[in-house]
Amino acid sequence: MTIFYALIFGIVEGISEFLPISSTGHLILTAQLLQLPQTEFLKSFEIAIQLGAIGSVVVLYFKSLLVDWETIKRLAVAFIPTGVIGLGLYKLVKHFLLGNSSIVLWSLFIGGIFLILFELFYKEKPEAVSDIRFMTYKQAVLIGLCQSLAIIPGVSRSAATILGGLSLGLKRKTIVEFSFLLAIPTMLAATVLDLAKNVHIFTSDQFGFLAVGFFSSFVIAILAIKFFLGYIAQHNFMVFGIYRIAMVLLMLILGQLNG
Question: How many CA atoms lie within 13 Å of 204's alpha carbon, on the beta-carbon side?
Answer without folding.
Answer: 0
